[in-house]
C-alpha cells in the first residue's frame, strides 16, 4: 500500500475554540476551518497542536476535532498532534486519531522530558507510536533555547524509523534550523522539513524548507501564502514586502512577554476578525486585556494589503 505523502506548502495550525464554560465550540471550529479554506494556497491543516491547547484537551475532544476536520477539510491534508506523558497512552491515542481520519501524526514531546530524559526513552516513545499505526509520523523539533530540542544523535535515531516522513522544525533559531535540515537531507532526503518559526518564515523558506505548519496561517492565511509563493518564485522583493507586513503581528503574538499568551493572542485575533465568537482559553491560560487587543487590532489591519 502506498504511503500518504504530505503536500508541500502552507499547513495552517488551527486553534480549538471554546465557550465560556470551556466546552469545545464545534460551530466555531467549523467556522475557522471555512475561513482558512477560503485561501486556495493552503494545502494542509495541523490540528490538536500547541495552538489547539492539546495538553489541555481530552482524548475524546482530540478525536472529535479529527472527525469534524475530516468532514469539513475537503482535500486538505490533516496532520493531528499526539501528546501524552505516557508512551502507552500516546500509542493508543495515535491509533484513535488515525481511525478518526488523520492523514499523519505529529508527535509532541512529553513535558516531563524538560526535567530530564535520555535518547533511548525518546526513541522508545516514538517507536511505540510508530508501531501502533500505519500513518506517516511527523517529528517535532522543539525550540533550540529549551530543553526539549533533540540532539543530532537523537534526530539520527528517530529518522531511522521507516514511517517518519516529515519534521516540523520549531527550532526558532536559524542556525539550528539549518543544521536540522542539512542533517535530515543528508541522511534521508525524502523526509520533508516544514518550517515553524512564525517570526522568520522568509528566512526559513530561503534556507529551503518545503513549507510551514504554522498558526499564523490560521489568522492571516492570505499573506502567509503570498510570502510562500513569492519565495518559491524567487521574487524576493515581494517576499520582503510580505515579511515586513507579517513581522509586527508575529512579534506581538510570539515575542511579547509572556510567551505563554501566544494561544490567547491567536484566539483574540480570530475573534477580532469575526471568525470565532469566543476567545476563551482553558485555565490556567488567561484572556488578554484591552491593551493587547488594541495592539493586535492595529497589526491585523496592517496585514490587510
Gyration radius, to the nearest Å? 18 Å
- What does the overall shape look like? globular
Please count the helical segments: 12
Order of strands, widest sheet:
7-6-5-4-3-2-1-8
Low-confidence stretches: none
> For the residues shown, what is the average pLDDT?
95
Largest sheet entry: 8 strands, parallel
Q: If you consult CATH, what is the topology of the domain at 9-221?
A: TIM Barrel
- The top level CATH class name of the domain at 9-221: Alpha Beta
Strand content: 5-15%
Q: Can you describe this structure?
A:
The protein is globular, with a radius of gyration of 18 Å. An eight-stranded parallel beta sheet has the order 7-6-5-4-3-2-1-8. The chain is built from twelve helices and eight strands. It has a domain at 9-221: Aldolase class I (TIM Barrel). The model has no long low-confidence stretch (mean pLDDT 95). With 305 residues, the protein is of the alpha/beta class.
Topology (elements, then pairings):
Blueprint: E1 9-13, H1 26-37, E2 42-47, H2 59-72, E3 77-82, H3 87-100, E4 104-107, H4 119-132, E5 137-141, H5 152-158, E6 164-169, H6 174-187, E7 192-195, H7 201-207, E8 211-214, H8 216-219, H9 221-232, H10 236-254, H11 262-272, H12 290-303
